[in-house]
Specification:
The chain has 755 residues and is α/β, with parallel strands linked by helices. It is 44% helix and 16% strand.
Length: 755
C-alpha cells in the first residue's frame, strides 16, 4: 500500500509537467495498457508503473471535469444573466459584499455586490443575477502566490460583479440548499451580534467556524514571524488536539460507569466519541480542504487503531493519501496538503521505532521539536524562510490554544445558542486567553534575527536537506545518523547568481495595473516604483515585491526610486521600508516620505560599471502629477533601458526639445501606454527594440491604447505586456542579443489563464 500510494502520488504530480491539459482520450490507451500489465504483476516494477498510470489517468479525468466550462472571451465584461446558489458565507465591507456563487453545469463564480444594493445575501439562497464576469487571472512572479492554481483547486471558474438591474431577484430559499453553510452562517451572525465588540472577535470566528474575516495583515505578519500561522487555521492540529482531549475525557468517564464498561470497551467507545466530535468540528469549519484531509486521516487512523492493525501508522497514512487524492487529486496544488502530510509523516518517523521512550521530553517536547526541525526543507522551499523561534512560540501557545481556547470556543458557541449570558461569559474568558497569546507572540517576535530568509534553492539542495533531516531524526544508533548535518551544508552556501561586473539584470514585475521594477547589478539593487496598495489585503509591495526580492537573496536595497505619488506606483513602498533597509530614496513626491531626496535632471552615478542617470524632471517641473515623474536611464557598454514612470506628452516634448539622449534598447512605456502619452517623435527618438507595457488584466482604463501600440509596432519594436508575460526579465550585457524571458511562459501550467 505504501509504495503504491507514493507512485500514485507521483502519477498525480506528473500532470504539472504539462503547460496545456492533455486531451482526455490519452487516458484510453493508458488504461488499456494498465489492464494488460495486471497479468504481469509478478515482474519487478510493474506495480509501480500501474500505480503511476492510475494516478495520471485519475487526475486527468478530474481536471477535465473541473475544466468543463470556461468563460468565453467574447462574454468577458459583457452583461450576462446567471442563475444559481450562494455557496458561502457572505463577506461584507464598506464597499461591497462578496460570496461564492454556484451555477449548475458551470461551477463556482466569485461575485461581489456593491454596497449600494441594500439586500441581505444568505447561504443556500437561489438567485438570478445580471453580472459582468472575467476569467481568473492572477499575477505571475517568482516567489509570489499562484492565485490561479488556488482558484483552480477550489473549483472557482470566473469572477465578477453584480450589475444593479431589475432582473436581480431571489428565486427560492430552502433549508436543504447548502444546509451546512446555512448553519455556519447562522452561528457566524450570532457571534457577530453578541461578540462584535470583543478585541479578538475575528480570531474567535476563525477558531469556531473557520471564518477569518477582518483579520489584519499585521496579525498575519506576527503569526508568520513566529511560525504559528497554523494555530488560527482550523486543520489537523486543532482537530487532533480536540480529538485527543475528548478521547481521554470520554475514556475517563466511561471507565467510571460499570454498566457502560460491560457493553463496550472504554478504548473503543472513547475512540468513536472522539471521532464524532472531530468530524463535527470539521463540519463547523465547512469541510474546507485542510479539514477534509484532517477528517479523512483521523477516521482512517482511528479505524486502524480499533482493528488493531499491525504497522498501522504508515499504512494508515498511505491509505489516507490515497483517499484524499481520489476525492480531490488537485489538492496537490495546495501548500497545506504538503504541510499536513509532512507533519504527520515526521511525527510517525520521529517517534516510532524507539525503544521504550520515556520522560517529560518525549511526552511534551519531542513531537514539536521533530516538526519544527523536520519541516526545515519544506518551509524553505515553499516560503523561502525558516523561523528560529517557532519551537518556543508553539511550545507556549499550542497548549493554551489547543487545550483551553478551542474547547472553550466550541462550548461558548453552543451555549450562545441557548443562553446569551452564559455564552458571553465563556467568550469573555476566551478573549482574555487570546489577548495573553498575542502578548506572548509579540514578546517572542522581539527576539532579534528570529527569521532566516533563503533565496530560492534548486531541487538538488532540497533533496539534500531532506536526506539530512531523515538521517538526523533516525533512531539512536542508526548508521550515518551524525552525518545528516553534512547534507544541510549546501543550504548555507546556496545563493542565486548575480550579474557580472558591467552587466545589469532588469525585471519588470507583474503587479496588475501599476508599475514595479527591479534593476540588479553585481553588488547593488535599485527598485523603480512599487505597485499599488488597494486595501490592507492587497498590497503589491507585500505580495509581489518582497517575496521576489527574498527569492533572489536580497538583504538590503541600495536605492528606491518612486517616480511620483500615484498609488499604483508608490503603494508598495511602505512594505519595502518595513522589510528591508533602504539606503536612499529618490522621488518627485517628497511629501509622501519622511526622509527622501528629489530625483532631478542631471543626477548621475555608476554602480559596478553600469551607468544610471536621471533625465527628468527639473525643479521647475515638480508638482505637475504625472508630468513630474522621474525618468531614469540605465546603460551598460552595449545596451540601455529607459524607465519613464507616468510622463505624458508634455514631458515627452520637453525631453525632445532639450536634446536629451533618449536612445534606448528597452523602454518601459510612459503611463502604461495611455493615449495621453506616446508621441511618435518621442518613440522614434528612443527607437526601442523592446517596449514593455505594465498593465492590469482588463483594466478599467483600457490600457494600452491601440493607437500607442500601433505606433510602437510601426517603429519595429517588440511588444510585451505584463498581462500576457507575467514578470519579464531582460539581461543587459555585452555579449548576447537582448531577449526577454517571460515568466508566464516559462512557468506555464495547464490551469493558467490563456489569453
Amino acid at each position: 500500500m505504501r509504495t503504491f500510494a507514493i507512485w500514485f502520488l507521483i502519477g498525480v504530480l506528473s500532470i504539472q509537467w504539462f503547460k496545456s491539459l492533455p486531451p482526455i482520450w490519452i487516458g484510453i490507451p493508458l488504461a488499456i495498457g494498465t489492464l494488460l500489465m495486471f497479468r504481469r504483476r509478478s515482474i519487478f516494477g510493474v506495480n509501480f508503473v500501474i500505480a503511476f498510470v492510475c494516478g495520471f489517468i485519475w487526475v486527468l479525468i478530474y481536471a477535465h471535469w473541473i475544466s468543463v466550462w470556461v468563460l468565453p472571451q467574447s462574454e468577458e465584461g459583457q452583461p450576462i444573466l446567471i442563475r444559481g446558489y450562494i455557496a458561502s458565507i457572505s463577506k461584507a465591507n464598506e464597499h461591497s459584499t462578496a460570496f461564492n456563487f454556484y451555477v449548475p453545469r458551470k461551477g463556482l463564480i466569485k461575485l461581489s455586490v456593491r454596497s449600494n444594493l441594500p439586500v441581505n445575501f444568505h447561504a443556500g439562497d437561489e438567485w438570478q443575477f445580471r453580472v459582468k464576469l472575467k476569467n481568473i487571472h492572477g499575477q505571475m512572479n517568482p516567489g509570489g502566490f499562484d492565485y490561479e492554481a488556488w482558484a483552480y483547486a477550489e473549483g472557482i471558474r470566473a469572477q465578477g460583479y453584480v450589475i444593479p438591474n431589475q432582473e436581480n431577484q431571489l428565486i427560492a430559499s430552502h433549508w436543504f440548499h447548502y444546509p451546512l453553510t446555512r448553519l455556519r452562517e447562522r452561528i457566524f451572525n450570532s457571534l457577530k451580534l453578541n461578540l462584535n465588540h470583543c478585541k479578538n472577535f475575528s480570531w474567535i470566528t476563525a477558531l469556531a467556524i473557520g471564518e477569518r474575516q477582518n483579520v489584519s495583515p499585521e496579525e498575519w505578519e506576527l503569526l508568520r514571524k513566529t511560525g504559528t500561522n497554523h494555530l488560527f487555521a482550523i486543520a489537523g492540529l486543532h482537530i487532533g488536539l480536540l480529538v485527543g482531549f475528548i478521547f481521554f475525557l470520554a475514556k475517563f468517564l466511561w471507565t467510571r460507569n460499570h454498566f457502560l464498561l460491560t457493553k463496550y470497551p472504554a478504548q473503543t467507545a472513547a475512540s468513536i466519541i472522539a471521532l464524532f466530535f472531530g468530524l463535527s468540528y470539521s463540519a463547523l469549519a465547512g469541510f474546507s480542504l485542510p479539514t477534509q484531509r484532517a477528517s479523512i486521516m483521523l477516521t482512517i487512523f482511528i479505524l486502524f487503531d480499533l482493528t488493531r492493525r499491525q504497522s498501522a501508522a504508515w499504512q494508515a497514512l498511505a491509505l489516507s493519501l490515497m483517499v484524499i487524492l481520489i476525492l480531490n487529486p488537485l489538492s496537490i496544488l495546495s501548500i497545506s496538503f504538503w504541510l499536513s502530510f509532512g507533519c504527520v509523516a515526521l511525527i510517525i518517523y520521529g517517534v516510532s521505532s524507539r525503544v521504550a521512550p520515556s520522560g517529560l521530553w518525549w511526552k511534551l517536547g519531542r513531537i514539536q521539536f521533530v516538526i519544527a526541525g523536520g519541516l526545515l526543507p519544506l518551509s524553505i522551499w515553499l516560503f523561502g524562510e525558516f523561523t528560529l523561534v517557532g519551537f518556543i512560540a508553539n511550545s507556549f501557545c499550542i497548549p493554551i490554544v489547543g487545550f483551553l481556547i478551542v474547547p472553550l470556543t466550541l462550548i461558548g458557541t453552543l451555549l450562545l445558542q441557548l443562553s446569551t449570558t452564559l455564552g458571553w461569559l465563556v467568550f469573555f474568558c476566551v478573549d482574555q486567553l487570546l489577548t495573553l497569546v498575542w502578548k506572548i507572540l509579540h514578546l517572542i517576535a522581539l527576539i532579534p534575527n528570529a527569521n532566516l530568509h533563503f533565496s530560492h534553492s534548486s531541487l538538488m539542495v532540497l533533496f539534500a536537506c531532506i536526506i539530512g533531516i531523515i538521517l538526523l531524526f533516525s533512531p539512536k544508533g542508526f548508521p550515518l545518523k551524525l552525518y545528516g548535518w553534512l547534507f544541510l551544508i549546501p543550504l548555507c552556501f546556496a545563493a542565486p547568481l548575480h550579474p557580472k561586473m558591467g552587466d545589469a539584470q532588469f525585471t519588470l514585475l507583474d503587479v496588475g495595473q501599476g508599475l514595479a521594477s527591479v534593476i540588479q547589478t553585481n553588488k547593488h539593487i535599485l527598485i523603480f516604483d512599487t505597485g499599488a496598495k488597494l486595501g490592507s489585503s492587497n498590497d503589491m509591495g507585500e505580495s509581489v515585491l518582497v517575496p521576489y526580492l527574498r527569492s533572489i537573496g536580497i538583504k538590503k536595497i541600495d536605492m528606491l526610486v518612486v517616480s511620483h505619488g500615484d498609488n499604483d506606483h508608490i503603494g508598495g513602498a511602505a512594505a519595502l521600508q518595513k522589510n528591508f533597509v533602504i539606503n536612499e530614496i529618490k522621488t518627485s513626491a517628497l511629501d509622501k516620505f519622511k526622509s527622501a531626496n528629489l530625483c532631478l535632471q542631471g543626477q548621475k552615478w555608476i554602480w559596478d560599471e553600469v551607468n544610471f542617470e536621471i533625465l527628468y524632471p527639473t525643479r521647475e517641473l515638480l508638482g505637475e502629477g504625472n508630468d513630474s515623474s522621474c525618468v531614469l536611464r540605465v546603460s551598460t557598454k552595449q545596451h540601455s533601458i529607459l524607465l519613464t514612470g507616468d510622463i505624458e506628452k508634455k514631458s515627452e516634448k520637453y525631453l525632445l526639445t532639450n536634446n536629451i539622449l533618449l536612445k534606448s534598447d528597452v523602454i518601459v512605456v510612459p503611463h502604461h501606454g495611455s493615449k495621453t502619452s506616446g508621441l511618435p517623435d518621442f518613440i522614434q527618438a528612443v527607437n526601442p527594440t523592446i517596449a514593455l507595457f505594465p498593465v492590469g488584466y482588463r483594466n478599467r482604463y483600457h490600457f494600452p491604447n491601440p493607437t500607442v501600440l500601433n505606433t510602437y509596432q510601426n517603429n519595429n519594436s517588440q511588444l510585451f505586456t505584463s498581462v500576457t508575460s507575467g514578470a519579464i526579465f531582460i539581461t543587459l550585457n555585452n555579449k548576447s542579443i537582448l531577449q526577454p524571458i517571460e515568466y508566464r511562459t516559462t512557468h506555464a501550467k495547464f490551469w493558467n489563464h490563456k489569453i
